[in-house]
Design goal:
Strand content: 15-25%
Mean pLDDT: 84
Helix content: 25-40%
Shape: globular
Number of strands: 19
Radius of gyration: 27 Å
Order of helices and strands: EEEHEEEEHHEEHEHHHHEHEEEEEHEEEH
Length: 443
C-alpha cells in the first residue's frame, strides 16, 4: 500500500513512459496502468449498481495509446496489486496556493460530512495530519475516532448463551450431554447458562476490523492508535464469518452507539463502498459522486443561512410531475420532477438545482451550460407556478477562477433563470451573497 498516485477530476492517466513528465498527463507504470484498465472493466454495472466506466473513461490517443480520463467520482481506489489511486475534487482556491492538496482534502472531508449516509459524527480534522495521510488513512482514522468515542461511553455487554462442562453447577443441567460426558467425572456438570460479557457480535466485528486495519495501514499514527484500542477488546473473540455476523446486527435504542461503527466496519471488512459497485474482493473502491456530495453540501449550507429568516428549505422536493397519462377518470402522474432544493416563505417559492460542473467564459458556447439543464429549469418554473406567481429558478455551479460573476436569463414569457457560483473553497461559502441577491430579485 506504499504506492500512491494522486490525481484530480478531469485528469488524464497514461501508462506510456514517454509521457511520464508531461504536464498534461498523470503517469502510471505499465503494470499499474494495466491493473487500472482491468479494474475499470471489472467494476461493470447494471440498473442497480454503478459502472466504473461512468466515471473513468478509457479512450485511445494517437502516439500515446490507451488513456484513462477521470470524472464525476472522488475517493480512493486500491487495485489488486496494492497500488492506490487517490482522486480529489477540482476546487478553485483564488486566494491561496494548494499545490500539496492539503486544503482540497480538508474541504472535501468537510463536504462529505454533509451527506446523510456518510458515517462520521465525532471526526475532528484538526487532530489528523492531512498532509501526511491519503484519504484511505483518513477514513481509517475516522473509524478509530468512533471506536475511541465508544470506549469512553462504554463497550456494551450482553447475555451470551454458553454450554460448558464445569466443576460447579449453575444454569441448566443438559442431562443427555452430562451423562455422556461425565460418566467417570462425577465432580463435573455439563450445563448451559447465560453469561453477561462483552463478547457480543458487534464487538467481534470491531475487533476483526481493527485486526484487518492493523495490516493495511501505513500510518504510524493509525498503527499506534489501533494497538491502544485493541487492549479493551482483549477478551473478545474476533469475528471470522463477517457476512453472518453482520446479518445478526440489529441497531435499536439499546445499541445506537454502534450504528456508525458498524457502517464503517462493513466498508473495511467487506470492501464495500458508499457508492454501489460490483466486483471481486481483490480490489476496493471507496468512492463518492461529487454531484451528490455537492448537492448535499449546498443544501446543508442553505438551511443554515436561509432558515433563520423564515425560509423553509426542502431538499429533493417531490411535489410535482411533468405529465399525466390516461383518461380523465384514471389519470396517472408520470415523470416526477425532483429539483435539488426548493425554498418557500409565505406565497413565494424559489427553485434551485446544483450542478457540479466547471463553466467556461465563452458566451458563444452558452458558457458550457447544457441545453437540457435549462429545459429542466424552465419546466420547474412552469410546474411550480402558483397562479400568477412564477418562481425564480437558480442553477448553482462551483466557483472557479474564470467563472464567478452571476448570470441572468429571461425567457420572455415570465421565467427568469439565474446562475450563481458557489465558493466551496471557503468554509462558510458565499451563500449569504446568494440570499441577498435572491431576496432583492423577488421584491
Amino acid at each position: 500500500m506504499n504506492k500512491l498516485l494522486e490525481v484530480k477530476e478531469f485528469d488524464i492517466i497514461t501508462g506510456n513512459p514517454n509521457f511520464e513528465n508531461d504536464e498534461k498527463y498523470k503517469y502510471l507504470d505499465t503494470v499499474a496502468f494495466k491493473n487500472l484498465i482491468e479494474f475499470i472493466h471489472q467494476f461493470t454495472g447494471n440498473e442497480e449498481v454503478a459502472d466504473a466506466l461512468d466515471f473513468m473513461r478509457i479512450s485511445y490517443k494517437r502516439n500515446i495509446g490507451n488513456v484513462v480520463s477521470i470524472k464525476n467520482y472522488v475517493g480512493l481506489i486500491q487495485m489488486k496489486n496494492g497500488y492506490q489511486i487517490q482522486i480529489l475534487p477540482k476546487i478553485s482556491f483564488t486566494n491561496s496556493d494548494d499545490s500539496e492538496n492539503i486544503n482540497t482534502k480538508k474541504i472535501f472531508l468537510n463536504m462529505l460530512r454533509s451527506m446523510r449516509e456518510f458515517p462520521s459524527k465525532v471526526f475532528n480534522d484538526s487532530s489528523i495530519q492531512v498532509d501526511r495521510m491519503n484519504l484511505y488513512e483518513i477514513f481509517i482514522n475516522m473509524y478509530l475516532q468512533e471506536i475511541r468515542r465508544l470506549i469512553k461511553i462504554g463497550i456494551k455487554s450482553d447475555y451470551i448463551f454458553k454450554e460448558d462442562n464445569l466443576n460447579y453447577y449453575k444454569g441448566k443441567l443438559l442431562t443427555s450431554q452430562h451423562f455422556k460426558t461425565n460418566l467417570v467425572h462425577k465432580e463435573r456438570f455439563y450445563i448451559s447458562y447465560d453469561e453477561f460479557n462483552p463478547n457480543r457480535v458487534e464487538n467481534k466485528l470491531i475487533k476483526a476490523t481493527l485486526f484487518k486495519l492493523q495490516k493495511l495501514t501505513t500510518s504510524a499514527e493509525n498503527s499506534k492508535e489501533i494497538r491502544q484500542l485493541l487492549v479493551p477488546f482483549e477478551m473478545i473473540d474476533a469475528s471470522i464469518n463477517y457476512t453472518t455476523d453482520f446479518s445478526k446486527v440489529k441497531i435499536d435504542r439499546n445499541n445506537r452507539d454502534y450504528e456508525i461503527i458498524m457502517q464503517w466496519s462493513k466498508v473495511f471488512l467487506l470492501n464495500k463502498s458508499f457508492t454501489t459497485f460490483s466486483g471481486n474482493n481483490n480490489s476496493r473502491a471507496l468512492l463518492f459522486s461529487m454531484e451528490k456530495v455537492y448537492e448535499s453540501y449546498v443544501a446543508q449550507q442553505m438551511k443554515k443561512i436561509f432558515s433563520p429568516d423564515g425560509w423553509k428549505v426542502s431538499a429533493q422536493d417531490r411535489g410535482y410531475f411533468l405529465f399525466q397519462e390516461g383518461h380523465e377518470e384514471k389519470k396517472k402522474n408520470i415523470f416526477r420532477l425532483r429539483p435539488d432544493i426548493v425554498i418557500r416563505r409565505g406565497d413565494v417559492t424559489v427553485v434551485f438545482d446544483t450542478k457540479w460542473k466547471r463553466l467556461i467564459p465563452d458566451r458563444s458556447k452558452n458558457y458550457g451550460i447544457s441545453s437540457s439543464d435549462m429545459y429542466q429549469m424552465y419546466a420547474y418554473s412552469k410546474k411550480y407556478a402558483e397562479g400568477d406567481m412564477v418562481p425564480e429558478v437558480w442553477v448553482l455551479y462551483p466557483k472557479t477562477e474564470e467563472m464567478h460573476e452571476p448570470l441572468h436569463f429571461d425567457s420572455g414569457d415570465g421565467t427568469k433563470a439565474h446562475v450563481f457560483f458557489v465558493d466551496v473553497a471557503t468554509k462558510d461559502t458565499n451563500l449569504d451573497k446568494l440570499k441577498a441577491m435572491m431576496e432583492a430579485s423577488i421584491k
